[in-house]
């Protein structure tokens, strides 16, 4: 992964992408509090462990592999 857009921290960018994914998956309105709480919990764990950049770069690898017709799995 290259630079994080807009000079954001990796944690802030991951949070931004995560909320965009949440809207895409569950719709933008009336997302259950349980789901929002779980997202915040997971992001908190990622931030505490310092893995935000890892979670940002893995999709780059997967997308590149797919563009090269390389099969990728859930692992």
What can you see in these coordinates?
- Helix 1 packs antiparallel against helix 2.
- This protein is 67% helix and 0% strand.
- The protein is globular, with a radius of gyration of 14 Å.
- 3% of the residues are buried.
- The protein contains 3 helices and no strands.
- By secondary structure, the protein is mostly helical.
Based on the model shown, name its key terms.
single chain; 75 residues; 3 helices; mainly alpha
Number of strands: 0
State mean pLDDT (0 to 100 scale): 91
- The helicity comes to 55-70%
Order of helices and strands: HHH
Question: What is the rounded Rg?
Answer: 14 Å
Q: Helices and strands in order, then pairings?
A:
Elements: H1 10-26, H2 33-49, H3 52-67
Compact description:
By secondary structure, the protein is mainly α. The protein is built from 3 helices and no strands.
């Amino acid at each position: 992964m290259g630079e994080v857009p807009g000079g954001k921290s990796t944690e802030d960018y991951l949070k931004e992408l995560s909320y965009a994914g949440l809207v895409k998956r569950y719709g933008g309105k009336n997302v259950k509090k349980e789901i929002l709480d779980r997202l915040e919990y997971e992001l908190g764990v990622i931030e505490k462990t310092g893995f935000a950049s890892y979670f940002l770069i893995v999709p780059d690898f997967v997308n590149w592999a797919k563009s090269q017709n390389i099969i990728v799995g859930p692992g």
